[in-house]
Amino acid sequence: MILNKILEQAHALMKKAVHEGGAVIDGTCGNGHDTLFLSNLVGNDGHVYAFDIQEQAVENTRARLKEHEVLERATVIHDSHTHIEKHLQEEHKGMIQAAIYNLGYLPGSDKSIITKPNDTITSIQNVLKSLKKGGLVVLVVYHGHPGGKEEKEAVLRYVSSLDHKNYEVLNYSFINKDRTPPFIIAIEKNV
Ligand code: SAM
C-alpha cells in the first residue's frame, strides 16, 4: 500500500523531524511503542523524555526499552504531560526537535483514564515553547471513546487558532471510513 496506516504516517513524520543526537518528547508513552521508535531515531547521543500518568504505563515503557537495550536513551517520567517543562534538562529547553502524543486511552488498560482537553492543550502550548525552529509536534487523535469527541473538538479549535506566521498546521485524515477513524494533526514551528 502507498498510503501509510495512521501510526506509520505519524512515524514517517517524526522520522523527518528527528535527527541523531536530538532531544524529543513522547507525551503519552503508554506501552512505549513510540518511545522505543524515538529512542532508535535519536541514537546513543540523543534523549527521549516520555510521560504518562499511569504507573503501569511507565513500567511497561521502561521494560520495552530495557528489552531493546535502549533504556539509557530515555527518561520515563510518571507525571502529567502538563509538567514537561520542569523535567527538561537546561540544555534541552528550546531545543526539542519533536514531540508525539497519542490521545485517548491505553488499549488493554483502564478505558476511563483518557487524555483530557485542557491538559492536552496546556501541554501542547508548553511544548511549542520548548521546540526549536523547524521542530514538529504530532498528535494522533483517537476520538471514538466517551470524551473523545470533546477532546478532538477542543484540540482542533486550539491548533486552528495558532498564528500561521509562526506555525504550519496540517490535518491528515482518511475521509472515506465510517465510524471514527483516528487522524493526525502535525504542527511545524517556523520561528
Ligand atoms: N503511545 C502509547 C503506546 O505506544 O502504547 C499509547 C498511548 S495511549 C493512546 C494514551 C496514554 O496517555 C495513556 O497511557 C494514558 O495514561 C496517558 N495519559 C492520559 N493523560 C495524560 C497526561 N495528562 N499526561 C501524560 N499521559 C497521559
Describe this protein's structure.
The protein is of the alpha/beta class and 191 residues long. It is built from six helices and seven strands; from the N terminus they run H-E-H-E-H-E-H-E-H-E-H-E-E. It has helices at 6-17, 33-42, 55-67, 84-87, 117-130, 148-160, and strands at 23-26, 47-52, 74-78, 96-103, 131-141, 167-172, 183-189. It has a seven-stranded mixed sheet with strand order 3-2-1-4-5-7-6, sandwiched between helices. Strand 2 (47-52), helix 3 and strand 3 form a beta-alpha-beta unit. Helix 5 (117-130) runs parallel beside helix 6. The radius of gyration is 15 Å and the shape is globular. The structure holds S-adenosylmethionine. S-adenosylmethionine binds next to helix 2 and strand 2. Keywords: Methyltransferase, Transferase. It comes from Halobacillus kuroshimensis. It holds the Pfam family rRNA_methylase. This is Methyltransferase domain-containing protein.
Give a short summary of the structure.
InterPro entries: MnmM_MeTrfase (IPR010719), SAM-dependent_MTases_sf (IPR029063). The protein is α/β, with parallel strands linked by helices.
- Shape designation: globular
The major pleated sheet works out as:
7 strands, mixed
> Rg, please?
15 Å
Q: Low-confidence stretches at least 5 residues in length (pLDDT < 50)?
A: none
Mean pLDDT: 97
**SS-based structural class?**
alpha/beta
Helicity level, as a percent range? 25-40%
* Number of helical regions: 6
